[in-house]
Write a structure and sequence with these properties.
It contains 3 helices and 12 strands, in the order ββββαββαββαββββ. By secondary structure, it is mainly beta. The N and C termini lie far apart (42 Å).
């Protein structure tokens, strides 16, 4: 998917571990359910929900692959307590999607949708971070199917479950609601530096109102 045109460097390549984390050499495979089969002729990326113009936007795999490619050097912190430091992620910045398919002014959150109906909710500000990226590559190599090929979201400042594998689209939302793991007891925000692992740790304002 294109060639690198930008490389972000800085603290992410030399960061310390968040509380409760341990350094991981290599990249363990962690996910729920089977690995989906990639069919490029059927694959599309959708942006829908509260868009600025009220319309849905779709890209085929070929079209999405043609979007501007960049790289971000960033850590990956898994809620299972391993951290992988200083990886180079290549792909499409989330900000590019926001520019091409702008959200309505009332949007506060997004739901990132993946294969098999898997979902993860994010605050719009987290999704719009300059370091949030729809990754197609790691360290210059295409992602493997087990690690999310053809597309996974990486949100470096949150726990890795907030960035689903096998992403297929983004829903703009004017109110928060919980995604797959958030409905099953994981923290609604997932900040590793505050060790926000589980929903029982949530404070008022961290999650959707009941």
């Amino acid at each position: 998917m294109g060639q690198p045109v930008e490389r972000e460097t800085g603290a992410a390549a030399h960061s310390e571990l968040p509380p409760g984390q341990r350094m991981q050499r290599g990249w363990p495979v962690t996910h729920y359910g089977p690995v989906p089969k990639f069919r490029p002729e059927r694959w599309e990326f959708r942006v829908f929900g509260a868009t600025a113009d009220g319309e849905k936007r779709c890209w085929t795999h070929e079209e999405f692959a043609g979007l501007p490619y960049t790289t971000v050097v960033a850590d990956l912190h898994c809620v299972t307590k391993f951290s992988m430091l200083g990886a180079e992620w290549g792909g499409i910045p989330a900000r590019t999607i926001l520019e091409l398919a702008p959200p309505a002014s009332a949007v506060t959150h997004v739901m990132v949708w993946a294969e098999y109906g898997f979902s993860s909710n994010l605050r719009l500000a987290d999704f719009a971070s300059e370091r949030t990226i729809f990754a197609t590559h790691k360290d210059g190599e295409l992602l493997t199917a087990e690690h999310g090929f053809p597309l996974r979201l990486v949100v470096p400042h949150l726990y890795a479950w907030k960035g689903p594998k096998w992403v297929r689209g983004v829903e703009y939302m004017t109110a928060d609601r919980r995604g797959f793991w958030e409905e099953r007891g994981y923290h609604n925000i997932g900040d590793p530096w505050r060790e926000q692992r589980y929903s029982y740790q949530e404070e008022p304002g961290d999650g959707p109102e009941l």
